[in-house]
Write a structure and sequence with these properties.
16% of the residues lie in helices and 33% in strands. By secondary structure, it is of the alpha+beta class.
Length: 480
């Protein structure tokens, strides 16, 4: 490099780098989410990610006619779209593909296909890897999906080892034929080039058709006599196109546990804590399939404004212990009748990179617990000012949030008032948790926060004097 890495204008000059001594590095495709065009790396570490020139393109119409595939070395009317005299950094890869979008007045937007892949499918390394290594099949991305046609709520059960940060991207693929075509085109284009013994340059288009606003950073380049004719995108920053669902819930296999920084049980902190990976050595080899995968996050801003207006949440029901079962006699008494019962070979662990937002916080408690704690804090009827409030566990339990026991009548029918109905129409047992309050050093009081029957229903707050057994919890709730 011949200039200061902080001088973004100088970095765009053709003589800012030494072209005769370039270095080509091979990296796993799963690392693509953290590799953007124009980023500066040194000794295996990113040292800068300049914005260069940033532009907003409003009301872009994306269709098969307006957004076409071109090669980076294409010449039109004897003029190159990417003149080497002004942009020499692609000279060894002129056969790579871009999408050219017509802007009007002879101008165009030129987006490398690898950036389209990275931006729209790069929320996690595991997702993007699956789109490259095999023909697209739904079972590689989700086990089950269910769309409520009335409220357009989508529920996904993600495939093994896929992170929830990719749920929205997978939801778009699941419910949009254009997104499916775009995702499937990645492997298909690689396979086609390989069969024809051509250099493998993947290409695919936008995962939608319609009007969108794009924000991107890159560089303006001339075309013939016109100085600012082609905007070459280095990094897509934002896309306003709407996702094909109004809300999204998902289930994932990468369960989180409750613990504090010291590893002990401390549920009163009110957060899910992330486990800290040990520092290890990165090997230039395939990861072993029998090794647990480490996780590393990479920060990004909100790429899709549409998702900021929509609810996306994780259903953690699969992580809850099975509920006890109680029989309600005709006289109202409860009798417990059943208990829940449990029903690659390399020595190198893989590394999964996952997208995080720059304002991301630790994973919060379930929504009903958060709402319940706010009600308790704002109402002196529940807790007087200055009283210490914290979540606590039932005796013998390590998780403060638990599933309410199942209550059936003498005909074997489950009590409907104990069921939670999801936005997709599915039903499950409601959940609850205990809150401990220190009134005096030796006097403790407890409140029970009970999940509402739907996500939009406020939780119930019930007062107790001690940690009740399951039978008393049910009786108290039914009497309330």
């Amino acid at each position: 490099m011949r200039c200061d890495s902080s001088d973004h204008s100088a970095l765009l000059l053709p003589d800012s780098t030494e072209h005769q001594h370039s270095h080509e590095a091979w990296v796993p495709i799963a690392a693509l989410p953290v590799l953007a065009i124009g980023d500066l790396w040194q000794h295996g570490r990113q040292v800068a990610s300049p914005d260069y020139q940033t532009e907003s393109f409003k009301g872009l119409c994306i269709t098969q006619e307006s957004a076409i595939f071109v090669k980076a070395g294409l010449a039109v009317d004897e003029h190159f779209l990417l003149p080497l005299s002004r942009h020499p950094w692609h000279r060894l890869h002129t056969q790579s593909y871009c999408v050219a979008v017509t802007l009007g007045s002879g101008n165009r937007l030129l987006i490398p296909c690898m950036e389209i892949i990275r931006f729209y499918f790069g929320s996690s390394g595991n997702l993007i890897q699956r789109l490259f290594i095999a023909p697209l099949r739904s079972e590689a991305l989700w086990i089950r999906k269910r769309l409520n046609a009335t409220n357009k709520h989508l529920h996904l059960v993600l495939a093994n080892r896929l992170s929830g940060v990719s749920a929205a991207d997978i939801g778009r693929i699941a419910e949009s034929k254009f997104a499916w075509r775009s995702a499937a085109g990645i492997f298909a284009s690689c396979q086609k080039a390989s069969v024809q013994k051509h250099p493998v340059y993947p290409y695919t288009g936008f995962p939608f058709e319609g009007v969108t606003d794009l924000e991107a950073s890159g560089v303006w380049l001339p075309f013939g006599e016109q100085e600012r004719a082609t905007f070459l995108v280095y990094r897509l920053r934002s896309c306003s196109y709407q996702f094909p669902f109004h809300s999204l819930s998902y289930e994932a296999a990468d369960r989180k546990v409750w613990h504090d920084a010291s590893g002990g049980s401390k549920p009163g902190e009110g957060k899910y804590a992330r486990s800290k990976p040990k520092v290890g050595e990165v090997k230039d080899s395939d990861a072993g399939e029998n090794k647990s995968q480490h996780t590393a996050g990479f920060a990004t801003r909100h790429k899709f404004p549409d998702l900021q207006r929509k609810q996306v949440w994780r259903e953690k029901i699969e992580a809850m212990p099975k509920a006890d079962v109680f029989l309600r006699r005709s006289d109202g008494s409860l009798e417990q009748v059943a208990f829940g019962e449990a029903d690659g070979h390399a020595a190198v662990a893989g590394l999964e990179v996952r997208q995080t937002t720059t304002d991301e916080k630790e994973i919060p408690l379930p929504q009903f617990v958060q709402f319940g704690l706010k009600r308790i804090a704002s109402n002196p009827e529940y807790a007087e000012p200055g009283v210490q409030v914290k979540l606590t566990c039932l005796p013998g339990k390590t998780n403060p949030v638990f599933t309410l026991p199942v209550v059936i009548d003498e005909d074997g029918v489950i009590a409907s008032d104990q069921l939670f109905e999801g936005a997709d129409g599915s039903k499950r047992q409601r959940r609850a948790c205990f809150v401990e309050m220190s009134v005096e050093p030796t006097q403790l009081r407890y409140l029970l926060i009970v999940e509402g029957r739907t996500r939009s229903t406020q939780p119930e707050i019930l007062a107790t004097t001690k940690l009740d057994a399951a039978e008393a919890v049910l009786l108290k709730q039914n009497q309330g």
